Amino acid sequence: MGVAEYFGFDEYGTDLETELLAGLTTFLAMSYVIVVNPAILSEAIQIEGYSGQEVFQMIAVATILSSVVAILVMAFWANRPFGLAPGMGLNAFFAFTVVLGLGVPWEVALAAVFVEGVIFILLTAIGARRYVIELFPEPVKFAVGAGIGVFLLFLGLQEMEVVVTDEATMVTLGNVATSSIAALSLAGLALTLVLWARGVRGSIVIGIVTTALAGWILTLAGVVAPGVLTPGNSYEQVTQDGLTGMIASVQYDFTPLIAGFIDGLGQITEDPLVFVLVVFTFFFVDFFDTAGTLIGVSQIAGFLDEEGDLPEIERPLMADAVGTTVGAMIGTSTVTTYIESSTGVEEGGRTGFTALVVGVLFALSLLIVPLMAAIPQYATYIALVVVGIIMLQGVADIDWSDPAWAISSGLTITVMPLTTSIANGLAAGIMSYPLIKASMGEAKDVSLGQWVLAIAFVVYFAAYFAATAGMLAF
User: Fold this and answer.
1) Model confidence, pTM
2) What are the φ/ψ torsions at residue 43 (nearest 5 degrees)?
3) CB neighbours (10 Å) of residue 97?
4) In sequence order, which residues have a C-beta less than 8 Å from that of residue 40 and are 6 or more positions away?
5) How many domains does the chain have?
6) pLDDT digits (tens, 9 = 90+) for 370-420
7) Is residue 466 part of a domain?
C-alpha cells in the first residue's frame, strides 16, 4: 500500500506535494515551542549539578520527543493534519503558579500532568470526551473558528510589535518608525499577504523564511544591533562558536528529568489536596483548549458535519492524551493540539501525512536544537496573522438574527482574545446559551447535558477564583 492510498489523498482531494508543504508550514509556525517551552519551564525546574543552560536543553529535547510521540499518534491513528506540542499557557501555569507560586516541587507537578494524561486516555477510550464536546451548543461550535482567528491576529500583531501595551487604553498601535521588529514584520506580512492573494503556493513559508533571513542579514551587516532582529543567545553562539560549536554543545541526556518525575510520584501523598487541585486545573483547561482548537481548525478544513461535530473526534483526542502522559514522564508539561495547525490546513493539508511531516521535522530538529532558536518569533507569528484573517470567515455560518446564537457566538469570539484563552471563550458561550434560550421561552431546546456543562463551568470558575485568591493571600 502506497503513501497516497494509506492516508487517503484521493478521498481528501490532496497530493504529496501539498501535504509536504502543509507540514513544513505548520512546523515553521509552531517551531518556536522548541525554545519557548524550555525557556518557561526552566524558570521552575532546577537540577542539582546542572547549569541553567543544560536544563534548558534537556527540556528542549523532552519538548521535541513528546511532540513527536503525540504527532505520530495523530498521523497514523487519527489521520488528521494537526500538530501537537506542550501547550503555551499551561506551561506558564506549571512553572509560575504551581511550582513557583504554590511551592509544589516540579517533580510533583510532572506527576500531576501524568495523572491528567492517564485520565484523558481513559475518558477518550470510553468516548466520554467526545460526548462532552458534542454537547457544545451549535452557535459555539461555529463561532470557535472566528474566535481563534481573532485570537491569532491579536497574538501575532503583539509579537510583531504592531500592537503594543498602553497604560491608558491597554493596547495601541506600535510605532513602526522606532521599532525595527514592527517595520520588518509589516514588510514580511505584506509580502506574505500579496503572495497568498495571488495564489502562490507556500506563501506563508516564503514569508516566514524571507523575514527571518532579512533580520539576520540586517544584523550581520551592522544595520541593527545584535539581539534586536535576532535572538540574542543565537547571535552570540553563531559569532563565537560557529554552527558546528552550537550543535556540539547540546545536552541530550534528559534522564535527570525522568528521575525527577519518578521522585514526584512518590511525593503525591505529602499534600494530596493541592495535588488534586493542580490535576483538576490542568485537566479542565486542557480539555476545553484542545476541544476548541480541534473544532476551530476542523471548521476551516471542512471536516465538521452539519451539526458542527468532528467525526471520530476521539482519535485526535487520543493523540494529546498519549502525548501528555509520555511528556510528563520525560519532563515537560501538558501536550495539546496547536492552533498553528491552521497554517498547514490553509496550505491544503488534509491528512495525517501533514502531521507526519511535522513530526519528522521535529525529530530532525533534535540535531540542530540551537539553530531552531535562531528563527525570530516575530517571523513565525506572521503566519498567525495571515491565518487569523482567513479564519474570520467562520462568522458567515452564524445566525446573527437569533439572540441565542448572536450572544453565545459573540461572547465566544470576543472572550477568547481578550482573556488569551480558548477555554475561557468556550466557557462564555456555553454558559450563556442555556440562559438566553430559557429567557426566550425555548428552554426545551436546551439538553440536560448542556445545562450540566454550563453549571460545571460556573462551579469551576468559582473554585478557581477562590483558590487563586487563597494563593495570593498565601
Assistant:
1) 0.78
2) -65, -30
3) 18
4) 91, 92, 94, 95
5) 1
6) 666 677 878 878 888 887 888 788 788 899 999 999 999 999 999 988 988
7) yes
